[in-house]
């Protein structure tokens, strides 16, 4: 065992991508195991490795962790990205949960039927522009600090950066009305650990394509 966290999921974004983002932002190297067949997935279940018969699976500090939210909370706490007290943690949780709702729409988008794609894309744009991004624009403007919580880099900043880039892939001009978020994105992009993660050849996964969708349906088919 190398001591590096070991991530088991498909070779694509899905529910593992925020975990990759958070580990990378914390400067932590990790190993990945990719599921490509239903047999591999079934074996994990049969061996009792997956508590709720679901991935992502992250092996870290002698634990086999499942449930994305629990994994992210643990990583954030372990690497000091979870605020200095309960109040800061509550704020981070609120921001992260809100962004998770937006990211869920983006996660499901590649699985939309062709005739629903345009409608679903409009929904992502509308929610990002009118519900989610205005919150973070206002927070950054009001406290005039570089980061969302406690003027210190946290899990909430990582999640926001991931969400901004994910929405921009679908709606390139989405930040046009959000000057604070434009500045935030530039600052985040230049943080050494995030800059490294954004380079070609990093563990960051590309947007889901038809092959990824096909693999997901094959591995998880009932």
Short description:
The chain has 222 residues and is α+β, with helices and mostly antiparallel strands. It has nine helices and four strands; from the N terminus they run βαβαββααααααα.
How would you portray this structure in words?
- It is a single chain.
- The chain is α+β, with helices and mostly antiparallel strands and 222 residues long.
- It has helices spanning 17-25, 38-46, 68-78, 86-108, 117-143, 155-170, 179-189, 192-197, 210-219; strands at 6-9, 31-34, 57-60, 63-66.
- The protein is 55% helix and 7% strand.
- Strands 2-1-3-4 form a four-stranded mixed beta sheet, with helices on one face.
- β1 (6-9), α1 and β2 form a beta-alpha-beta unit.
- α4 packs antiparallel against α5, α4 (86-108) runs parallel beside α6 (155-170) and α6 crosses α7.
- The longest helix is centred in the middle third of the chain and has 27 residues, at 117-143.
- It is globular.
Describe the secondary structure blueprint for this structure.
Layout: E1 6-9, H1 17-25, E2 31-34, H2 38-46, E3 57-60, E4 63-66, H3 68-78, H4 86-108, H5 117-143, H6 155-170, H7 179-189, H8 192-197, H9 210-219
Parallel strand pairs: 1-2
Antiparallel strand pairs: 1-3, 3-4
CATH class term of the largest domain:
Mainly Alpha
Average pLDDT score: 94
| Overall shape | globular
Helix and strand element order: EHEHEEHHHHHHH
Which class best fits the helix and strand makeup?
alpha+beta
Strand order of the largest sheet: 2-1-3-4
The largest sheet is: 4 strands, mixed
Record field, number of beta strands = 4
Q: Architecture of the largest domain, according to CATH?
A: Up-down Bundle
